[in-house]
Design brief:
This protein has helices at residues 2-30, 47-52, 54-57, 95-98, 100-106, 156-161, 163-169, 171-193, 234-242, 280-299, 322-330, 340-349, 360-372, 425-440, 451-460, 471-479, and strands at residues 61-74, 77-83, 88-94, 114-123, 129-140, 197-198, 204-205, 217-220, 225-229, 247-255, 267-276, 303-306, 309-312, 318-321, 380-386, 395-396, 399-410, 413-420, 464-470. The protein has 496 residues and is an alpha+beta fold. The strands form 4 sheets. Strands 6, 10, 11, 14, 15, 16, 17, 18 and 19 form a 9-stranded mixed sheet that branches. Helix 11 crosses helix 13 (360-372) and helix 14 (425-440) runs antiparallel to helix 15 (451-460).
């Protein structure tokens, strides 16, 4: 009961504070000083540049603008901290410098208000670089109250829902998203330097293909047809290889109507790239070079400390087959298990989920997921995936039950997936047919038939290597972010 009473008192006090701010705005408007009529302000300098290049700015006039984050009043003078896009800088505001009338208005300004200040750059007797205000203009009145400075905004739900406040009061959050942008730029720079062409492909389609995932479904009113948000852009990009572009890539949002956890958001960023006359071995080299180069360029090192664990992305990364990993960590040798019946039996014996429904290929994948992934901390390529879980990958000529495919893992997560792309249209159509049977049996993540894609590779798809990289997961690793929601500006949230 005492806690409930405390919360009621806090809400009442907050309501009073919010009303005071509205009353201040009303008075400003009544006095003809409505801050919201200001349309622009000529900013000539920013906090970080002024501080880092003080010798160049000392004694010079500047115009700065930003949000008031702290106020310290001392009679006829005040200090305020202004936060702009780069950081914070102090401003010294004296009554005799800006005038009595302006100062009386100024002292009513609140933390959170946005102001513009013109004045001279100097250093206080305590050595702090500051701007001595000669003019101050209120440009936006904050009608809400920012979290207090000592504890900040710590409630993760509120942080994600009100990212705009999170960015204001938690400087490290802003740094993370600046770093995200730098990482994305460096990924694209790397691809461009390798001669890949960046392209755009549809987000809405009549078929959800290119991956095994549950799609989001929408409806196009004019055509009166259901459409799907893309779960991957693979099939369109391979059509472009058919059309004569030898190297293409696209980075963008994918959508999967699946679970949410620290590694999964329904809307996420991935990059897919395809190279004609290349194979999955080439894609391995591309993967390790891409991530190590981006880490080096952005962080200055290939080593990252992720949540207390050092991970080194320096090439070459370790390579191992899926069967080798299962043999090592599960003690089951699928080279000796050759039938579906034997695979189901050992899966049932080990308590693998839905063991009765598994064939040999899916049993290998299930054992790998259950026993192996937790051990894959340092970057590693897991190769030779069963055909049953790789409907778009080329078979291994020495073992047709397996495909020339790899998944790259780091920190126990899959961060990339690649194949030597299947370019046999007869085999591809049969695999689509097999996937349709699985859909009819209740697997809503199985592939749909894409007749036009089959037609495209009947026209002729050259030998091609394809690669998809989970950009968000790479960014998590490079920024030491514990949750995918920490590196997505506006993550998906359940409405309140």
């Amino acid at each position: 009961m005492a806690e409930e009473q405390k919360n009621v008192v806090q809400e009442e006090n907050l309501s009073e504070v919010l009303q005071v701010r509205r009353d201040k705005l009303a008075k400003l408007q009544a006095d003809g000083r409505d801050p919201f009529v200001v349309e622009k302000y000529d900013v000539t300098a920013y906090s970080q540049d002024i501080k880092e290049n003080f010798d160049d700015y000392e004694g010079k006039k500047v115009s700065i603008a930003g949000r008031i984050m702290a106020k310290r009043r001392m009679g006829k003078a005040s200090f305020i901290d202004i936060q702009d896009k780069d950081g914070r800088i102090q401003s010294y505001v004296r009554k005799d410098a800006i005038g009595d009338v302006e100062y009386e208005y100024f002292v009513t300004y609140d933390i959170g208000d946005i102001v513009g200040i013109k004045g001279e750059v100097f250093r206080t007797k305590h050595g702090e670089v500051s701007v001595k205000a000669e003019e101050i203009l209120l440009m936006s009145k904050s009608l809400q109250v920012l979290p207090e400075k000592f504890h900040g905004l710590t409630d993760t739900e509120i942080r994600y829902r009100q990212r705009y406040v999170d960015l204001i009061v938690n400087p490290d959050v802003k740094k993370t998203f600046v770093l995200r942008t730098q990482i994305v730029k460096e990924i694209k720079r790397f691809m461009d330097e390798r001669g890949f062409l960046e392209v755009d492909t549809p987000i809405l389609g009549t078929i959800a293909g290119g991956a095994a995932a549950r799609p989001f479904i929408t409806h196009h009113n004019t055509l009166d047809i259901d459409m799907y948000m893309r779960i991957a852009n693979e099939l369109f990009l391979k059509r472009l290889i058919v059309g004569g572009f030898d190297r293409v890539y696209e980075m963008g949002h994918m959508f999967r109507n699946e679970g949410m956890d620290p590694k999964h958001n329904p809307e996420y960023t991935a990059i897919e790239m395809y190279q004609a006359y290349a194979d999955y071995e080439d894609m391995m080299e591309l993967t390790e070079s891409l991530i190590s180069t981006v880490a080096e360029r952005v962080l200055g090192t290939t080593k990252v400390n992720y949540q207390g664990t050092e991970i080194d992305f320096k090439p070459p990364w370790k390579r191992a087959t899926m069967i080798e990993m299962v043999r090592e960590y599960a003690g089951v040798d699928f080279d000796q298990i050759t039938t579906d019946e034997e695979a189901r039996a050992i899966a049932k014996e080990r308590g693998i989920e839905d063991a009765d429904k598994l064939n040999r290929g899916k049993a290998i994948a299930a054992f790998f997921e259950e026993y192996c992934e937790e051990h894959l901390v340092q970057p590693i390529f897991i190769t030779q995936h069963p055909v049953e879980i790789s409907p778009l990958a080329k078979r291994n000529p020495k073992d047709p039950a397996m495909t020339n495919r790899f998944e790259a893992f780091a920190n126990r997560w899959e961060i990339a997936n690649a194949f030597s792309e299947l370019n046999d249209p007869i085999d591809q159509k049969q695999r689509f047919i097999d996937q349709l049977k699985e859909r009819e049996a209740g697997d809503d993540e199985a592939h749909m038939m894409d007749e036009d894609f089959v037609n495209a590779i009947e026209v002729g798809l050259p030998p091609t290597g394809g690669l998809g990289v989970g950009v968000d997961r790479v960014i998590m690793l490079l920024t030491n972010a514990a949750s995918i929601r920490d590196i997505i500006l506006f993550p998906t949230m359940k409405p309140l």
